[in-house]
Amino acid sequence: MRRLLAVTAVTTVLLAGVACSTDRPDAGPAGAAAAGAGATGATSGAGAGAAGGNAPEVCAAARRASGAAVRTYVEELGRMMAAVGANDGTAAEAARKRAEEALTGWRTALEQQSARADDPQLRTLLSDIATEVGAMGTDLDSIDETELDRLQQRLDQLCVR
């Protein structure tokens, strides 16, 4: 029962972060002006405003990769837990491998976007998120939900639309 609650908690945190960063409406002229103003303010203080340069493209690619990976990861964790509950070791192991592959793909995509980013804050943040994702596994106790949430909030600040 404890594991089921942990899966539910992790799922909520991961999906909330992806939903927050992918379900925003496209910015109109007012949003573009606000993003531009934030980009100029970003140089005045650490973590202030939106990232500059190619941030919109990098952020969009990172959001797509995160959304797909989180969905796959959560689905496979659910399958793994169901298989463990049904005493099906083969299915549990297959689901565990697919969940780990989703994490590897997510980490790789974040590293690629970090390398592409012109903005140094965005580059560092994507690298930090990739490191955190790399530390995750299928052991629910290994997932630092607080750190993931903090990194997601920083990404939301830098990737304003």
Automatic annotation (TrEMBL):
Presence of the UniProt keyword Signal in the record: yes
Signal peptide (UniProt feature, chain positions): 1-21
UniProt KW keywords: Signal
Top-level taxon of origin: Bacteria
Low complexity: compositionally biased ranges: 27-43
Signal in keyword set: yes
Region annotation Disordered: where it falls in the sequence: 24-50
Name of the protein: Uncharacterized protein
Organism per entry: Micromonospora deserti
